[in-house]
Amino acid sequence: MSFFIGNTNSDIEPDKDTAFMDALVSMTSSDSATYVGAGALRNADVYTAIRVIASDIASNPIQCTNDKTAKLLNENPNPQMNGFNFKFALAVNLLLNGNAFAEITRDNSGRPTQLNFIKNSEMVVKQDDQSGQVTYNYQPNNLKRRQITPVNMLHFKYFTQDGIVGISPLYALRDQISVQKSGNNLLRGFFQNGVNGTTVLKVHKTDLNADAKENIREQFEKANTGNNALRSLVIDDSMDISNLEVNTDVLKFINSNDWSSRQIAEAFNIPIERLGVENEHSSNEQSNLLYLQNSLSDYFSVFTSEINSKLAGTYTFNTDKLFSADPETNQDLALKGLQGGLLTVNEARSKIGLAPVDNGDQILFNKNYVPIEDLNSNEEVTN
What we know:
By secondary structure, the chain is an alpha+beta fold. The protein is built from eleven helices and 13 strands. Helix 1 runs parallel beside helix 7 (about 260-270) and helix 2 (about 65-75) packs across helix 3.
């Protein structure tokens, strides 16, 4: 047996110097990978990327011909969560850890009655070396472990090498986030020191040991930083004070550099403007369309492909809300749906916030649209 996902009771110690490595979860097979925890959200760009994607996944309803199951996904998956929080939690775990889990509870007829979210730290995925069979071992709060069959487990994964377990996008961002963190530390240190910058305090005619120097440094910083940063300095004639010149160009570069933000956006496959960085080459409408086509469609497929394989029916995401902020685009989409015979009059009206009308629940077709064979036969009869 090879264990693919271990729990948080790992022998590996967290790397406290890296912002996104606070909750390491190790793989106990011969392959190694890193899984992360909520500590990654202390990075503003990572937090924003995950919030944007998870919010869009959670706020766009999943639609299906099976109304009961669609309601289960969108409104009341379990007694503890509503549909938004359920999908949001799944998306956050998918983006942080590369995997997200939910157990399907069924009635005697096999119909799903409940979807229960499972934490990554409570799940162990195991594959038999010989048969290749995958099993899910669930152990909540160190209670008795039980096995869940794959048919009753929704296992969402985005980037995967073997099709069995996923890998976090943050695994590719360790260096980038480390550079960003170092720059932020430099800026924070500069502003914490106020006007003093890097101060040189020279004590005349003394031979100070390391402890004495450290004591003088601590006392001087205590008296002249923080709330005392702009107050007058008082020294006697045994001391000289000076400041090392700070290259403010370096601080400006750090403050304006968006390289790390672009790398984070690239790893999560979202447009850079979603992280608050201006993009001069596209409008809001173009950005929304590219975001839907190139980014969200992939994440939507992660969810719908797994749901389609485990629950009866065919499931898709309704993305109308992504364009609701643009009335012109929303109206154009509704009109095209009506003219193409895809929407009824009332369905088209509802998409632009209008009330239904009488006799508006029928599909309309344009009589001018006829097969070319019929057009040719009509011309022969006329001639």
